[in-house]
Fold each of these.
Amino acid sequence: MSLQRFISEAVSPWMQDEGPDSDIVMSSRIRFARNLKNYVFPVLSNGQQNLEVLESIKKKFNAAPNEEIGKLELIEIESLRPTQKRVLVEKHLVSPNLVEQSKNGAVLLSENETISIMINEEDHFRIQCLEAGFRLKEALNLANALDDWIESKVDYAFDKRKGYLTSCPTNVGTGMRASVMMHLPALVLTQQLNHIIPAINQLGLVVRGSYGEGSEAQGNIFQISNQITLGKTENDIIEDLQGVVMQVIEKERSARRMLLDNSRIELEDRIYRSLGTLENSRIIQSKEAAKCLSNVRLGIDIGLVAGISKSILNELVILTQPGFLQQYAGASLNPAERDIKRATLIRERLELEKQTKKSEGDER
């Protein structure tokens, strides 16, 4: 498979769209946790009970919600190869828990992959909507439309006083997690983030790595989300999160300006060394690749690096993960082989971009 074809088939269409404040906010996500009335929740049910839920969903959700959303494709997790499961996790379309522990788990995916509805994960439904850039309200509107569509076909487990009932007590109430994925290299470099995170936590929000709870923040990518779901409306949660994110955006931009004013040569050296590493390495581990990609993306965002599209960096963050590397190679790879393939893919992708830019220039 050619690199260009692999990218077009592997990268979610929504990733090509930058969206508002995309120099810092990579994506916005809304997730609803919902369960069915009169069914044991997945964490306590056996495989047969989960199978009954899945078969019922297949019958009831075989039509498109509306023309705007389009048809949703149901994928049963047990039908996938290990590499395919890993790819879905790396694209943030399913959780590690769904592919590793769920019995009779599945996912409903939209064609552009902005919509992912996990079935029989920790809860019967995990409705997820993704948007590029800082678009929390748009993601919420889409999630509400899906929630209404599902509720028109099933009875949710709901208590008038407590709200939506969920497997984890921290999700009871609205059952909503709102989050944004942010690229914060300047706050990390200036060591300001260490002081900001505790302040964010005191506001009922949490800062995690890009794959959620327990994950490491590689490549200076952090996820900020709400912790409180009970006693607040969806709009209250969104407004609280938006207010904090806007402050973090301003602090990151301020830190970038400070680095340019006070440490420009050191910053340029960091960025161009990283670009040289990406363009010339024959072996590169995931942590080093993430660090270099972060530095080059910062260089693009502040105008020091030209001729490379920011979307390529977004692609490479995903494409250089273990699952994607093995899918591209068409074979299982050990860690050392993945490091070689990762370096090769990055070089080829950057070279493809140069050729594309040159071709566009020749046409003009």
Amino acid sequence: MRYLDEVTFIKESPDSHYDPDLGEWVEKEPIRAVFSANITDIGTDRSAKIFGGIKQGAKVIRMMPLFTMPEYDYIEFDNKKWALTTYRNPSDRNTFILQEVSQ
């Protein structure tokens, strides 16, 4: 299996806060962790099982062996934001099924 795609696990900064003097939310730089992965579209059978029908904007991400899961709030790739739907760890190979998050 080839791991040619890059995915970024993003954890929002704990230092983000509301500044009462400015009267607005101050967003600090999030923590990013970039990894190589194998990304494919979800199959129709699996899509029907998980979502109850064929779902557009769903992907399967397979991580390299010995991958250590970072803390994260969401995942980015293809300049899009993705949320976790299902996670599996068969034979120490982390597999994520993701759904695209509309922004």
